[in-house]
Amino acid sequence: MASTTEPKVAETEQSTPSEQQKPEQKHLALGEDDEFEDFPVDDWPADQTEAAQRNGETKHLWEESWDDDDTSDDFSNQLKWVVGSLLVSTLLLTALSLDFRPRRRFR
Amino acid sequence: MNDLFKGFAKAHAEQNGYLLAATLSPIASSGNPQRLRLIWKSSHSSSVKGDIKHFIKSNSSHQRSLDHEEVKGWVEVYAAYWNAIGDVVAVEDGKSTWTKVYESWKDVTSALIRGYNNFGFEAWTIPCLYVIGKYLRLFAIRSDTERSRSAGDNSGGAALIQDDFDPETEKQSQLRDCEQHLKRIFTLCLNDRAPLEESRKWGIYFIINLLFKTYFKLNSASLSRTILKTLSAYRGDMPALSAFPKSQRVTFKFYEGVLFFLEENYIEAEKYLVEAWELCHKDANANLERILTYLIPCRLLTTHVLPTKALLEPFPRLQKLFLPLAQCIRKGDLRAFDIALQEGEDEFVKRRIYLTLERGRDIALRNLLRKVFIAGGFDELKEGETTPVRRTRVPVAEFRAAICMGSGGELVDTDEVECLLANMIYKDLMKGYIARERGIVVLSKKGAFPGTGV
Q1: Where exactly are the transmembrane stretches of this chain (chain A) (predicted)?
Q2: Fewer CB in 10 Å around end: N or C, chain B?
Q3: Does any domain span residue B448?
């Protein structure tokens, strides 16, 4: 009964308004701009669904979030360089703080 | 008005609820732009009830006749409808307000509800409830906008005096009121004891969807839970959701999914959103876009996958929203991720996905650390080993270097790096432990970064 109704009838109500009625329609639609819209038809056959459209094949729609094919040599060279410079700066900082310690002690 | 009741008689003869509902639409039809005006002009307030009764009787005389009580009920409904139409026409002429329209539409709603409770309206007529409920909500929203606009015009002094007055609540007072009436319709459908084939229970999901929309608009999405709880208490005598039209199912699944999403239950959310997406009409792009707006952040957290260009192709807005972030996540570029998140902040917050996307930073970091692991190459083969094993002892210094690089050259100290690593391990994005005294991370030989093939 109410479950399988004719889409056509529901359609008439939603169909394109005449010129004169446009502003009114727009106003009514305004309240809905950020929420789920009413469908123009009440029901549709299974072959009209998004799933059928994709033939149940959704693999190509999603991909892994990581990629490791891009120039991983570049990355590892850069990494080595940064590890080196971090080491130097850490040593430098340690050296500086060693340098300061005796002075403080003498004060 | 005669046309109106020809439609009414035809609908009754065919027992076609949607046809009947169309006669109660407060907007003009495509074939007849003057519809409302004609209806309004064809009667007068002093004679409207008599006119309606006459038209109902004369049009349906040769068909199955309505019983006396039912006619009485419908006369009430159409008299209230005629009255409301008068207000709609007056608004169009600038002579009335949406507030008035809302008030008179509320009378139509009450008359209709009374029809079911007192005058034996049959269940096939429930699409009337859909039309009434749908426009009740839209008129309430219109009325709220109108009222806040006029309040804005003459505020100033008044607002200062009443300091205990909450402008936010006041702004949506009509919609709040509307919620009460939608709930009455909800109860009307829920409590029908008639056998399922002729039960108003078939109206339940349409009304629930209206209530969901209302709660989301009122910024109290969580109230939807109350409705779902009530529903599940009755689930036993309710027709299965799969027996309802797809438009209602998709909308219902969407809101249920978003609800779980807002409750940070991403596993459940994904389930419902995927169902909504699969069932959705292929050409309903705006709705598909709304579903994906939540499904994409959801999947990022559950299965750590990103949408492909093929998926986003029909949706330029989603491309703009998600592609920059996706790029940063894939590259493990933390700094660019932060910038992209900041740049989209307003949009993300508006769509309530900011907090979820923010968690995507973990995935970006995971990808960065994974690159370090890959760059480490393989250990030398030991005796008896045939397949090369990746180097699983990685100095914290290397991770630190990568994190400094990913943060745009900012110096991140070792303690903070260890904290980030510990978090990754805790979240199961990385497997292993930190050997602090030796300054290395010992990663699992079987899947150091679960689900990423290494």
Answers
A1: 81-100
A2: C
A3: no
